[in-house]
């Protein structure tokens, strides 16, 4: 009697099936992963905008206006906007600047996604002097559409 030799390893079919299953799982998981990364970056930049708005409020509390002169006295300087720039990794995906003029009584800070990055399809985020938050959720370049008056997903 001959006994069958035992074999070790996998057949080509078993390997191909395994590779196909891994490929399908990766195709399903990757878009979800990139979506979560974009969502996390958006949350980080929202926190940065809030911190900058709080900085502006501190200036207002100390001086009585949002655009004091270089001596931090309202009405004594040119009324230029304070420097709100921050060196941060989050800024690799967004440009942050004042949206419009900073007056003695108002400001608006905007984060614009940088084209060519994963955030490019995200739409602008904005916060103003009374704490209103805007998000160009449909990425059409403005925050004037319905349901773009907060940072929540609709």
Short recap of the structure:
With 154 residues, this protein is α+β, with helices and mostly antiparallel strands. Helices cover 34% and strands 12% of the residues.
Explain what this protein looks like in three dimensions.
The chain is an alpha+beta fold and 154 residues long. The protein is 34% helix and 12% strand. Strand 3 (125-128) and strand 4 (133-135) form a beta hairpin. The longest helix has 52 residues, at 12-63. It is elongated and about 105 Å long.
Judging from the principal axes of the Cα atoms, what is the shape? elongated
Helix share of residues?
25-40%
**Could you tell me the radius of gyration in angstroms?**
26 Å
What is the string of helix and strand elements? HEEEE
Residue fraction in strands: 5-15%
* Oligomeric nature of the chains: single chain
Strand segment tally = 4
Low-confidence stretches: none
Biggest sheet details: 4 strands, antiparallel
Structural class: alpha+beta
Question: How are strands sequenced across the largest beta sheet?
Answer: 1-2-3-4
What are the main properties of this structure?
alpha+beta; four-stranded antiparallel beta sheet; 4 strands
